[in-house]
Structures are given as C-alpha cells and as structure tokens.
Design brief:
4 helices
C-alpha cells in the first residue's frame, strides 16, 4: 500500500476512534446528569422528610409538656381539697380552739402543703428541661442528617475531559512522497533500460 493510502486509512481510523470516544463521553455525561437529577430529587425529599420528622418530635414534646402541666394543675387542686378536708388547724379553729399551738399546727400544715406544691413545680421544671434537651438533640441529629445529605449533592458535576483531537497525517505530503518515490524508480529503470537499448540498437 502506498504512503498516501496508508495515511488516509490511518486518518480515517483515528477519526472513527475519536468520534467513538466523543459519543461515549456524551452518553456518560447524559447518564451522570440523569443520576444527578435523581440525587437532587432524593435530597429534597430527604430534607422534607427530616423536617417533618423533627416537627413531629417537637409536636410530641409540646403535647407531653402540656400533659405534665395539666397533671400538675389537677394534682394541685386535689392537694388543696385534701388540705382543706384534713386540716387539723381548720377543725381546731372551727371548734374555737385558738392559741399558739393551733397557729403552730396551721403553720406546719400550710408549710407541708406549700412544700408539696413546690416539689411538684420543681418536677415540672425538670421534666420541661428534659423535654427541651430531647428536642435539642433531635434538632442536632436532623441537622447532621441534612448536612450529610447535602454533601451528596454539593459538588457541581462536570463531564469528563474531552479526548484530544487526533493529529492527522498529511495525505498530500504522503502522496507527494509516493510520487517522488515512483518517479525515482521510473527514472532509475529508464536509465538502465536506455543503456541497454543503445547497446542493442543496430548502427550504434
């Protein structure tokens, strides 16, 4: 095969390979874009789900806190009724038994009643703090989950580096070299043939 034909065939092969690589790069990029869209959708759904979960946690906390307050108020009312019904100070005062001993009993009973109320208020406060702590922990976990989800979609996607364009051979130059080679061969053959002709031609 002459140099020109070889160069042409090599160029065609390189161009086919180059176009194949370009098509393969484009297909990979389309697939990556498709996966990116899926990942973005999953991220948005994950954020919505985590926010909804956190909202449910805070809703449960508020409901529990409200139940604790209602229970405390109900217990306080029961303690007040019990205090009035079982108060020796009230009985002694109603029977006309007045004096320091009566006042002392009244002060003791009142102190006990107030202490129960104070203990109940402290328990309610501690329970509220514990619920707030649970809410803060839930918010922290949700934040960590969302940051982790964001890490999966934070970086902008880019296509792969394009394949380098092939350096094609100069078909014209190769053909010219073929022509020179052929010309040289013909010239050499003509020179040799001319010498023989002169030798064999009659009269020379």
């Amino acid at each position: 095969m002459c140099l020109g034909a070889q160069a042409k065939a090599a160029n065609e092969a390189m161009m086919r390979d180059y176009e194949y690589k370009l098509e393969r790069r484009e297909r990979a990029w389309m697939q990556q874009l498709s996966m990116t869209n899926v990942e973005q959708l999953q991220y948005e759904q994950g954020i919505d789900a985590s926010n909804l979960g956190l909202a449910n946690v805070f809703s449960d906390i508020q409901e529990k806190h409200g139940q604790l307050i209602d229970a405390a108020m109900g217990q306080s009312q029961e303690d007040w009724k019990t205090f009035l019904q079982e108060s020796k100070f009230g009985d002694m005062k109603a029977s006309g038994r007045l004096g320091r001993s009566t006042d002392r009993i009244g002060a003791i009973e009142l102190g006990q009643y107030l202490k129960r109320g104070n203990d109940m208020a402290n328990k309610l406060t501690d329970a509220g703090r514990e619920l707030s702590k649970q809410g803060a922990m839930a918010a922290s976990r949700t934040r960590a989950e969302q940051l982790n989800m964001f890490a999966g979609v934070a970086f902008e996607k880019h296509p792969d580096i394009a394949p380098p364009k092939p350096v094609l051979q100069d078909v014209g130059a190769a053909s010219f070299m073929d022509a020179l080679s052929i010309g040289s061969s013909i010239a050499g053959m003509a020179g040799m043939g001319g010498f023989d002709i002169f030798k064999l031609t009659p009269g020379r």
